[in-house]
Amino acid sequence: MGPTQFVNGQGIDVRPHPHIGLATVTYLFSGSLEHRDSLGTVRVIRPGDVNWMTAGRGIAHSERTPQAARSAGEQSEGIQSWVALPDGQEEVAPSFMHYSAADLPRRSLDGVELAVIAGDAFGLKSPVATLWPTLYADARFAPGAALDLTVEHGERALYVVKGEIEAGETALGEGQMAVFEPGSRVHLQARGAAHAMLLGGERFPSPRFIWWNFVASSQDRIAHAKRRWSNGEFAQVPGETEFIPLPAQ
Q1: How far apart are the C-alpha atoms of 95 and 129, rounded to whole Å?
Q2: What CATH number matches the domain at 104-130+133-201, 2.40.50.140, 3.60.40.10, 3.90.1150.10, 2.60.120.10?
């Protein structure tokens, strides 16, 4: 999301909408967001913080620019990742956890500033609770800096936020993502300054399906969630009167 410079009085307004079978992971580079969910959670997130919302069998939430920031106008940029829940854990009770930027482990490695958001990598382990072995890290490259991606995770990928990074013989620009072969050696080289997210984890035994905001190992679970949202059977978000209708397709 972003980068966007809002004028006074404007901001992000994501109306209440549902999720199942995943955790949403919201991480900001600039600006702020107010999270509200059907558990009654109200939490403002700021740059470097982590909002980890586990949908499980079903949750609804909204995301909006806080009123004070909206009145002043602010620059906003961030990323939200969806982490599928593993087999046997898809219908856990919904929950929400917030971690401050100061909670995340960090290190500098040959000109690359690393913050491990979830899971473990580069000798660091995040305090963020996960249900499955996970890799998720923020990597900021000084001009020309290089990094060898660790091999212990079965699935690994790189998403470029800013700048350009060479992964082996492939050059990746802003907004591009590369998925790497399991166990392969991956050398990352920045062309100038660059910012990227490293992500992955272990492969699930069974595949996942995705439709709109729903992720599940079966199409029946998704069909059931669609009916629930259409029929107003998800718990409401306190303090909200709007909602996003189920898409037609």
Answers
A1: 11
A2: 2.60.120.10
